[in-house]
């Protein structure tokens, strides 16, 4: 199925590029420690959601697996983990806000349990790798940290054109997409079928290597095998060893009834998720206002004066409406429950019919004579009527 995403905010991975750039102190035991809020690039009034999002973005930028060219990335990554360990816990955060880094004691704030010391500052102790895994999923083990990239990938985005009626009533519509998927030749292994792979002796087949940098120890993706645990001797000729190929697929998108222009759904395609944004065409008949729709109906002068009935086009069928006597131009007739279905609900909006009076441009002699007779009797007229003149008694007569 598809889950709806309203365009009230940026959509998850779309905001990953908005990474703030901040300076980091490189000393682990500096007496002039950088403020933890500055480390994450958030104000002191930030919500927990904003703090987590900032850590997510900065940790992605400085994670050793995605930033191997920066020799200080590991230390910056560890500093981010320390900042999040404190600010991501409301109890520790309050204590830090009160006493600052100098007086902060995590053991009194529910933290600082025993175990391996990865990085210490101001009394805190945190394993950066474990912190990252804990928040954003367990990626270690057989797959290694090489799969972190998939976590930060920009999900593919596609645009689907819809008619007004398709968007209002919902539809199952096919969409052709080109996506990276498991290579059909090597089944994602990356090596040419029938060839052997060599066991990586650098990491003993685990796909991970341990790096001791002094203040802390990090386990990172093996630089020799790229986290696979093995080395290919003959890469697959179709995917060139990546295990992925671009494949054309046709998927059926369940467009929910009531979707609006610019709204987006997130739906799975194979092992991936894609975003689909809807572009809704304008209707020649209907105008939309949330779940309500508006349309016009033309009636004659006689219908407006005497009343009667008319037919209007509805979303699902033709609807008969009653015209009340003395109906005015732009008067609205409300058809309750004949609008668009509310999202995640069984209720519907309304259909508002706007009355438009069709004034004839040409009259027969008989019609003109009758209208002039009527004009003679008409009492409330501002100005004059062509062909009719007023008398001393206030009545008008034909010219």
UniProtKB/TrEMBL annotation:
It is found in: Cytoplasm, Cytosol; Mitochondrion matrix; Postsynaptic cell membrane. The keyword NADP does not apply. Residues 35-100 form the J domain. SUPFAM superfamilies: Chaperone J-domain (SSF46565), DnaJ/Hsp40 cysteine-rich domain (SSF57938), HSP40/DnaJ peptide-binding domain (SSF49493). InterPro entries: Apopto_cytoskel_mod, DnaJ, DnaJ_C, DnaJ_domain, DnaJ_domain_CS, HSP40/DnaJ_pept-bd, HSP_DnaJ_Cys-rich_dom, HSP_DnaJ_Cys-rich_dom_sf. It comes from the Eukaryota. Modulates apoptotic signal transduction or effector structures within the mitochondrial matrix. Affect cytochrome C release from the mitochondria and caspase 3 activation, but not caspase 8 activation. Isoform 1 increases apoptosis triggered by both TNF and the DNA-damaging agent mytomycin C; in sharp contrast, isoform 2 suppresses apoptosis. Can modulate IFN-gamma-mediated transcriptional activity. Isoform 2 may play a role in neuromuscular junction development as an effector of the MUSK signaling pathway. This is DnaJ homolog subfamily A member 3, mitochondrial.
């Amino acid at each position: 199925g598809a889950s709806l995403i309203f365009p009230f905010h940026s959509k998850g991975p779309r905001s990953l590029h908005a990474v703030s750039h901040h300076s980091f102190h490189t000393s682990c035991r500096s007496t002039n420690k950088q403020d933890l809020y500055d480390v994450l690039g958030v104000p002191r009034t930030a919500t927990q959601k904003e703090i987590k999002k900032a850590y997510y973005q900065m940790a992605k930028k400085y994670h050793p697996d995605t930033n191997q060219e920066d020799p200080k990335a590991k230390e910056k990554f560890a500093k981010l983990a320390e900042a999040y360990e404190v600010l991501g816990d409301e109890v520790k955060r309050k204590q830090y806000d009160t006493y600052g880094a100098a007086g902060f004691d995590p053991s009194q704030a529910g933290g600082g349990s025993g175990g391996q010391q990865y990085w210490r500052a101001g009394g805190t102790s945190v394993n950066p790798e474990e912190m990252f895994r804990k928040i954003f999923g367990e990626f270690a083990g057989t797959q290694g940290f090489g799969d972190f990239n998939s976590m930060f990938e920009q999900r593919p985005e596609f645009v689907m054109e819809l008619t007004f009626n398709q968007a209002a009533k919902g539809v199952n519509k096919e969409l052709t997409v080109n996506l990276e998927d498991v290579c059909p030749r090597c089944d994602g292994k990356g090596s040419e079928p029938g060839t052997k792979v060599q066991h990586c002796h650098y990491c003993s087949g685990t796909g991970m290597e341990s790096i001791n940098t002094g203040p802390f120890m990090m386990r990172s993706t093996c630089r020799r095998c790229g986290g696979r645990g093995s080395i290919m001797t003959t890469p697959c000729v179709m995917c060139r060893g990546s295990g992925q190929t671009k494949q054309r697929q046709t998927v059926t998108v369940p467009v929910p009834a009531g979707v609006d222009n610019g709204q987006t759904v997130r739906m799975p395609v194979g092992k991936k998720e894609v975003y689909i944004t809807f572009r809704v065409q304008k209707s020649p008949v209907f105008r939309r206002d949330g779940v309500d729709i508006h349309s016009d109906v033309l009636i004659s002068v006689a219908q407006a004066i005497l009343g009667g009935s008319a037919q209007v086009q509805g979303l699902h069928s033709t609807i008969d409406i009653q015209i009340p006597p003395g109906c005015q131009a732009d008067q609205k007739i409300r058809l309750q429950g004949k609008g668009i279905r509310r999202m995640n609900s069984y209720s519907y909006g309304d259909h508002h019919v706007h009355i438009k009076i069709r004034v004839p441009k040409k009259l027969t002699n008989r019609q003109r004579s009758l209208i002039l007779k009527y004009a003679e009797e008409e009492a409330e007229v501002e100005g004059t009527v062509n062909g009719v003149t007023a008398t001393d008694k206030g009545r008008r007569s034909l010219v």
